[in-house]
Every structure is written in C-alpha cells, then in structure tokens.
Amino acid sequence: MKNYILKRIVQMIPVLILVSIFSFMIIHLAPGDPINMYIRPDMTEEEIQIIREDLGLDGTIVEQYVAWLKNVLRGNFGNSVITHQPVADQIFNKLPSTLLLMGTSFVLSIIIAIPLGLVSGMKKNKLVDQVISIFSYIGISIPSFWFALMLIIVFSLNLHWFPTNGMRTIGVESVLDVVWHLVLPSIVLSIDNIAVFTRYIRSNTITQLEEEYVLTAKSKGVPKKRIMTGHVLKNCLLPIITIAGMNLASLVTGSFIIESVFGWPGMGTLGMSAINSRDYPMIMGFTMLSCLILIVGNLIADLLYSVADPRIKQGVKR
Amino acid sequence: MKKALSMLLVVVMVLGLLVTGCGNSQEENKEGGDKVSAGEKVEGGSVVRAMPTDILSLNYWYETGDEGMTMLRPVYDPLFIVAKDEVRYYLAESYELSEDGLEVTVKLRDGLKWHDGESITADDAVWNFQVKSIAENKASSGTKINGQLVTVEKVDELTFKVILPEVSASYIATLGGIRLIPKHVYENEANIASSELNMTQGVGSGPYKVKEWKQGESLTLEKFEDYYRESSLDTVVFKVMPNESAQEIAFENGEINVHRITTSDKLEKYSKDDRYEIVTLNEGRINYMGFNSNSELMKDIKAREAIATALNVPEIVSGAYGSEEIAVAAKTVFCEQNFYYKDIDGYKHDLEKAKQLVKDAGLEGKTLQLVYNSSRANMEDCALIIQQQLKEVGIEVKVTGYETQGFFEKFFYTDLGDWDLGLNGYSTNADNQGDEYMFSNQGFLSKNLVSTDEIADLWNAGDATTDPEKRAEIYADIQQKTKDAYTMVPISDCNFILAVDKNLKGCDAINIVPVFEDYTKLYMTE
Q1: What is the pTM of this model?
Q2: What is the CATH number of domain A87-317?
C-alpha cells in the first residue's frame, strides 16, 4: 500500500507541471493584460515598462513561467498584481467560507440522496421511484442560477424567511446568523448533487438487490431492513466514494455562479475577480490548488475504495 | 408512465404557483400595499449600496475601477472639484492660478483632521506629490503634464504651490481631484503600492471613516465626528453583490437603498412604485462608435462617411435605451456638461446617399467587424441595431462582444487592424482633456482611432491657453473638425438613473456623477 501511495504521489508531479504549463499559456493567450489596470493616458512608454518590470510582467512567456515556477518551488505563489498582497494569503482567507458552503451542501446531498436512492432502488418502477426519478431529472436539468433566483424571490423577497445575499448580517457576529445565510445557497448547490447521487445509488441498489448474496440472505429469513442496512447499503455507497473524491476540488474552489448570485465571499468570487482583472499569479494559484486537490481527492477516493472493497486492495497488491 | 406524467404536471403546477405568487405580491406593492410617504428629516440612519466588486485595498490611489473609487470616495476628500459653473471646495479652502498660468497656489482649510486625529497640513500634500511621482508607486496621476513632472513647494503650514512645467488649462481640474493619503502613516514604507498598510489602515480625510472591511463581503463606514462639516447619516455601507439580478432583488427587499437603472422597463416599473423615487443625474458620458484607423477599409474617409450617413442615431438610441430619460442621441464628441460644449448638428441620416457612398467606397457586400464591451449596459443592443441598419445599405456586420479587459486590449492596446468598428464610451463632463488621448494621434490610447494632425494641434492649443474665450473657440473647432473628418460617430449622451428608497434624500444635491460626490448631503426622512 505504501508503495502504491508513493507511486501515485510521484505521478502527481508531471501532472501538476503539465497543468501549470497549459494554464499559464491559456491565461496569457486570453486578450487583456493586467498592466492595463495601471496605465494612464499621460504615461510614457518608459513608465509603463518600469511598472511592467515591477510586476514581473516583462520578458517572454517562457521567462515569466520559469520565474513563477522557481518561486512556487520555494513555496512562494507570488503577489497578486492587482492587490499586491500574497496570493497564498488571499486564497487561504477565502477558503473557510467556501469550505463551509460547499461542505454543508455536500453533506446535505449525501444525507438526502442515500435514503432517496435506496428507496427508489427498492421500489423500482413503483410510484415512489417515479416521483423520485422525476425530481432527480429536474434536479439535474434545472439551471442553478435560475433556481437560486427563484429561491431568493420566494423565500427572501416574498416570504422574508432568509436573507437575499451575503454570509452574515453587517455588524452581527453569530453562528446562527451565518447558518441563516447558508440555507439558500447550500440548498441550491445540493440539488444537483442530490439528483446525481440519488441516480447512482438507485442504480447500484437495483444491481445489488439482484445479487446472489441478497437472495441467500432472503432465503435465510434475514429481515429486509437488515439486508438493506447491513449488506446492500455498503455496496451501494462505493461509487459515492469516487464522486466524493472528484467533488473534493469543488469543495475548495467553490461555485463561481452560486457564490456570485448569493454574494458569498468565497473562492468563487475571488477566482472570478482574478479572471476579470487578468491577475495571472492569482489565477495560477487558484488553478494549481484546484488541480492539487483534484488529484489528492482521487487518490483518497482510490484508497478508500480499497478499504471498502477488499478485492481492489488485492488488485493493488498484485 | 401516466403516473409519472401526472406527477410531472403537479410539479410544474407547484412551480407555476410559486412564480405566480411572486407576481401577485409585486402587483400588490404597485397598487399601494406598501405605500410609504416621506416625511421630516431625521438625523442618523444608514445608507446601504450594492457594488458588483470589492475595493482592492483601503488606499484610494490604487482603485482603478469606478466601483472601488465609489466605495472609497466618502473616505477620501478631494482638494476641490471644478464643475461647469462653480468650484466645490473640500480639503482646499481656495486655489489661485498665477497670471502666466504656471503656478497654482492651494490653501488647505484650517483644522482639518485625518481619521486618526492627526492634522492635515501642506507637508502631507508636498509628500503626496513626491511619492506619487515615483513610478514604482504606480500612482502618478496628477504629477505630470505632457510627460514632465510638476514640482510642489510648501508655502506655509496650510499652503502649497504647484509649479507647472508648461501651461495646461485642464490641469486645475486634475489637481483638484487628487486624494491625499497621510504622510505620517505611510512615510516609512519603501513602496506604497505593495504596502500592507493599504489593506489595514484606510486613514482618510472624508466625512466617513472605515469602521470595518470584510474583504469580498462589505465595507462599513461610520461618521467621522471631527470632519469640518456635519454629516447626517451615521453609517454608509457597501455590500459586495456581483450578480445584478441579486442586487435588484435585495433592493426590492429593502436591504439596499440605491439601485441603478439602465433599461426603460425597469424605469417604468420603479417610477410606478411608491416605495421608490427616481433620481436622474447627468452622467456626462458619450458612447460612440469609433473607426479603426488600422483597418484598410476604414482608412478611406468615404467609407467612414458612408457608414456615418447610413446610421440613424436617434433610432439606435431609442431602440437600445428605450427612454430619453436614460439617454439621448449624441451629436458631438462632447456632452452637454462639458465646459466647452457647443450645440452642433450630428451626422444626418440619409439612406439613399449612404447607399451611393457605400458603392463609391467599395463597401458593398463587404463584411465589417464590430467589437463592443459586453460588460457595459446597452452596448450589445446598440451593436445589433447598427448591424441591422448597415445591412440596409448592403454592408454585412459581424458583431463580437468582449468582456472589459479583452475589449480594451483590442480597442486601445493592440493595432492589428482586426476590427473595423468599435463601440466604446468616455466621460467628458468637465474640462476633460483626457479625450485628447483617444482622438488626437497622441499616446497609446489613440493607436487605433482615427484623427488628423490638425485635430491633434487643436487639442494641444486648447490646453495651452488659460483664456476661456480662446479655449471655447478652439474646442468648438475640435467638435466641427472631428465631425468633418468622420473620426467617430457619437451615439448616446447618457444619464445616470437611480431608483432610491423614498426615505433617502439628497441624492441629487449635486446633479452629476459620480454617485455620490458628497455624502454629507444625504439624509433620511421619517
């Protein structure tokens, strides 16, 4: 197992380097230049060049990339060319609010999707299954920004149950206030996950219920509830581990659209403003963090998979 | 399957009911369910505004966008504002221009305080000019005239003198708009641009001081008790809300007090609602269609004339903005709020003449590339109407929108000639020599836009004299020559329209952008 983890970690290095090269190239290909934020009509070319050098934006794209990489290898992601503050500090300042939002919605999704998926699978093609399936399809197809606006109109504007935006009421510092602000965005973010997870669990439940071990348990008179909770559930949840691993990156990088609609001060809004202002160091920091978390998430998912399913562990040994 | 379909129907009905419910509720408001009548002035209260982006730091110098400057304007007072018919003094008590036009003596008000209680003196002003002129500090505006530095001397504790390298009539307005930062806070910083103090201090000179800045969330300002004038509101709050629809919902929910309107249907909606008042301010902005001088087709003046004659500008403005209250058709490079605006006729729309000109210029059947800033309100509508109008004279137009950074890169900073027509706008509501950089063949902003040497000379001459009569003549000439050379087609002259909470008053005390220049004018009513 140790060798396997080591091998996977070594494999991460070329992936990260390739992603950094592609990201660096792509953001430089986009029209726009952060230097434009500082240019004033009365500036001379010399003045502009001084600012360019000061921001580390002089030299060819290769030179700029090498300089960036050297800094990163020293653990320095550089300073934002817009705010002049360290990229790492700004990212880690925003991380808690995004983790809170995305984590809550993820947990909510799992808690709701597991029973729905199981019931739907057990009652295949019955009314309950069809109702859940319809809701799943709606959840998958509904545009999240539209759903967000609908929830705001109904529950904030008309019913006044929840605030329309933000993470807290200005001047109020309480956990309950944050929870109150968290309700609508986390519901919106959960809907899609609930729908997808439910479909996965339903499909797995149907497959598992047809397995021989279920038949054996049934013939031995094991109560249905025990079959479901003790045997089927564990097997049904296996694909969720993979999806969770894939979702780990979004837990950290947040949702650009939903954070924007709800004015949630997280990584999504930070990323959006970095892209709009062509803040290259910030975009790179953001992209590399997402990439790292995605790779680590997959690794964790694979390891958990092998813990949950010994057959995979044997495969790893071989 | 039938059951499934019936369930789907139920879901759709539920959603429909919810949406209908929203509509009914709004209708009730319009009919007066929530009618509020404004009463007597009350001291205190708070105004909350929504902003699409946050400030970059607490230092006004480094705000590059309108939003950031708007948020920090109550914190940092300018020296003075030169308006069309008056000078509004803030930190400065007066200014005096020498007869030769080469020295400006500025006297600060006595007893002014920074937000940390220290006195504001001429030493602060002199130090500000010194550090602004260092390129690495990236805040050089107001320190140069035609590339040459101004020099600043202290006269006494409250007076300083700015010596100009050459006469520049428009420099007075630039000088007045400078926001000072406190010397005692920043003087030990090696580089002001990268100073951590920018993120933590925010010691300003305006009527409101920074109470709390939650990055990405909100900026809360509170009344500065030692300000030299009285303010009525206790707090001014800016909430960061990137999504425009969410801003509107928050406004209707009473969470914010001011909301900008850019379309006629919204104007109609809020005009009918008794909870709000419509405030119309002069934006002093001209939106125009520029011709790219690096496009082979647009180099020909006949081609430009053909396009200018084919366009029906009033129709474009009416279609894109929908209401004359939001924008009227522009006729010239200046808006009415410009000091030297002269009412001249715009290009005359003549379809038959345009068709002939199109043939003569060899534009028939050609496809032109039109670029516009998709982040700006009403630009896309203008682009589409222009596309339609040019089609009528046999010109195909390919319309492409770019977000702000991408658009400016294409429009100003690269000269590949890969677009022919471009929609942009600029503020021209004062003694605005800044327009010179776009339309005079000088500097990098004029890389693409059409101009002539004669027009460039006129811009220089206009700034090189302080005689108002001479300047008026020169700028009138610029307007006419710019029109004759078909350098651009002025499209719209815009207003800045706000829907405001009916209890909030004073929003139009200064009837021009920025919103708001002076927060001491705002107050609440019962």
Answers
A1: 0.86
A2: 1.10.3720.10
